[in-house]
Amino acid sequence: MRNTKMLHPLVVEFPLRGEWQSPNTPGTKIPSHGTDRLGTRYAYDFIQVDWDRRGWPSYRSSLAKYLTTGLPINDYYCWGKAIYAPCNGIVTTAEDNYPERTRTNLRSDLKNAYQNAHYFDPMTDDPRSVAGNHIIIKHTEKVYAAVCHLQTGSIQVTVGQSVKKGDFLGRVGHSGNSFGPHLHFQLMDSSDITKAKGLPCAFETYEIYQAGKWLETKNGVPTNRDRIRYSKEE
Question: Residue 40's closest CA among 163, 180, 170, 148?
């Protein structure tokens, strides 16, 4: 059994609004993505799902269509949803205009994931082939926050810009190494995602749906079974 205990996690604001599920989370396994490369040891993936359908699909169409013809990315519940700054800081990276694939396709997405897992060379390959359109925020000298796979053309910040917790950054997309529209979020110790080590992270506050009620959680780490919700009063 993999260890899921995180010692002294850094606490940040949840970077999304509404209801979400985390299929890959350090609350369930560490490394959450099966590797320590690219600062992903404690990374989260977030998607929106239909909690009333079997298997909690993240798309409106049928499983048969997903497995055969693939689905347009606007068929996914979370595509285009707003992403917000999880912490105060300075933008060190704002990579946009990397093309999104317009449809998901299980075969080609698996091939893409395999190539990146086994053949990605940080010395020669474009980090956007993995991270897609992405933003990195310097929070402190040794703490950087990254949001990845953003919608092409959606990034609203520039390098050198100061951001505050809760500022609008961009929108959830399907760029880079992605099986479907989702937000990949991680903290790391460097602005260079190809060399960074992942840092443990928890969220200041959110709610979990349990036994028909929404219960507040503070400084929490969601698991892949949690139905979570976050809203912020402006």
Answer: 148
Helices marked H in 81-213: 106-119, 128-131
Kindly report, residue by residue over 80-121, the tens digit of the pLDDT: 999 999 999 999 999 999 999 999 988 888 877 777 766 777
* 3-state SS assignment for residue 187: strand
Q: Can you list the domains of the chain with their CATH numbers?
A: 10-230 (2.70.70.10)
Give the Cα separation of 5 and 8 in Å (integer): 10
Residue 91 makes CB contacts below 8 A (sequence gap 6+) with 135, 136, 137, 138, 157, 158, 159, 160, 161, 162, 163
Q: Which segments of the chain have a pLDDT < 70?
A: 1-5, 117-118, 233-234
Cα 164–180–62 angle (5° rounding)? 130
How far apart are the C-alpha atoms of 141 and 137, rounded to whole Å?
A: 11
